[in-house]
């Protein structure tokens, strides 16, 4: 793990104890899960899962994945997730490093965390490796691009790049890594989906 990632991991470890999956946060996550389209018994890789807001949303929607894996760079976030969902499988890992799972997933979701990733090529590489043929890759955020930009201004956060990549950049990456059926939305919240070709 490089120095920047160590700092990021330590930062999220320090935040984990106070991190709350509020009712509003869960309702927002439910919207993304509904767009994703996952059904009970299908499989989901939840990248940068944090303390488990997507699991809370799945529970509220009465969806029981056949296989679920929560991945996060923060061990403390995963410990808190595991406290709420002891049956959940977790992996403390960096999705910007080469990653191979033993079995493919129907869905891969990066929710509310795309601003923390910089190596988008590795993100798409790992997504392609992790999904079954025809599997869906979604990048979603509870805020729109403009809403997230305004939020960052309010909290004084300065980023070297746009917090959410431009549609054109995502489309180029999807084509490069053999994804199709692209969909973009940025009205109520941001959502990008694509499908892994065979």
From TrEMBL:
<dbReference type="InterPro" id="IPR029063">
    <property type="entry name" value="SAM-dependent_MTases_sf"/>
</dbReference>
<dbReference type="GO" id="GO:0008757">
    <property type="term" value="F:S-adenosylmethionine-dependent methyltransferase activity"/>
</dbReference>
<protein>
    <recommendedName>
        <fullName>Methyltransferase type 11 domain-containing protein</fullName>
    </recommendedName>
</protein>
<dbReference type="Pfam" id="PF08241">
    <property type="entry name" value="Methyltransf_11"/>
</dbReference>
<feature type="domain" description="Methyltransferase type 11">
    <location>
        <begin position="45"/>
        <end position="139"/>
    </location>
</feature>
<dbReference type="InterPro" id="IPR013216">
    <property type="entry name" value="Methyltransf_11"/>
</dbReference>
<keyword id="KW-0808">Transferase</keyword>
